[in-house]
Amino acid sequence: MKSILNNLARLAIVIVVCGAPLCVAQNTNMYFNGGFQGNVVCGLPDGCAGTGFYDGSINNVNVGPGQASPGFVCDDYLDNVTTGETWKANGINVASLNSSNISQTLFGSSPNLSASAALTLYAEMAYLMNQMFTTNPTAAQQASYSEALWYLSANAVQPGKIKLNTLDSQAQTDVTNAELNANTPLSQYGNLWIYTPSPMGPGQAQEMWSTVAVSEGGSAAMYLLLAALSCCAAMLFRIRSRDRNCVAA
How many Å apart are CA 204 and CA 89, to the nearest integer? Predict the structure, then answer.
């Protein structure tokens, strides 16, 4: 009996440990159908780009015109997505961002940014994203928001990548407003979600934002993992303690 119980406890621990990557790794399915709702802008360093809300789906939930969510929005000027592209992403609610999990985001994982600087950047972008998702912006306004978002994120990791004077006048104002609201608590943006490509790195898809809720990984999954390990360890300790008592008797 002692051997069987010990083996069962060890098996439980192995299952939890081996299953950890499955808990932490996210499988948010992203799909871009090629549609976008903002204007095309051509004054940025890498040529013309579509802006604003992008159309497609998040975990098979359609986003775009006439849908519950108007689309997803790219915060990443340094990468690209193409029509018909699908990819996996790690989803995290903006309100849960902190110094412990910011590295799960695209810019939070950059070696050029401290955790504090990354949190400031995401607070600035969250302000702009919230404006987009709550004010029903026109195509021109969406283009300005995208320009401002790309300016903030690209220059955070590659200073000078985009010049402020190349943005339209509204985008320049949006940058100023975002910087003025950098101290707004991220807890106020619980309506927003970030979908970071998994894996991250050059050549991967872009990081997107929207309002479609997905299962979070990272710190939440790790907490569950540690809790499960603690339970298994306690179980094993009780088994061994009981066996020692039996032997002593």
Answer: 10
User: How many C-beta neighbours within 10 Å does residue 126 have?
Assistant: 26
Q: At residue 30, does pLDDT exceed 80?
A: yes
Ranges of H-type helices in the chain:
2-24, 115-135, 139-157, 169-180, 219-248
pTM of the model: 0.78
In sequence order, the 6+-apart residues with CB closer than 8 A to the CB of 177 are 127, 128
Position 217 scores a pLDDT of 58
CA–CA separation, 29 and 237 (whole Å): 41
Backbone angles phi, psi at 163, to 5 degrees: -85, 140
Query: For the chain, what is the largest distance between any 2 Cα atoms, rounded to a whole number of angstroms?
Result: 84
Q: What's the full length of the chain, in residues?
A: 249
* Residues 6+ positions from 111 with CB-CB distance below 8 Å: none
Domain boundaries, the chain: 1-26+222-249, 27-216
pLDDT tens digits for 113-163? 999 999 999 999 999 999 999 999 999 999 999 999 999 999 999 999 999
Lowest mean pLDDT among 22-31, 43-52, 193-202, 213-222: 213-222
Bridge partners (DSSP) of residue 36 are 54
Neighbours of 198 (CB within 10 A): 19
Q: Are the C-beta atoms of residues 228 and 15 closer than 8 Å to each other? A: no
Nearest to 93 by CA among 28, 184, 190, 186: 190
Residue 15 DSSP symbol: H
Nearest Cα to 208, choosing from 14, 31, 22? 31
Q: Output 229 or 169, whichever has higher pLDDT.
A: 169
Which residues, at least 6 apart from 14, have a Cβ–Cβ distance to it below 8 Å?
none
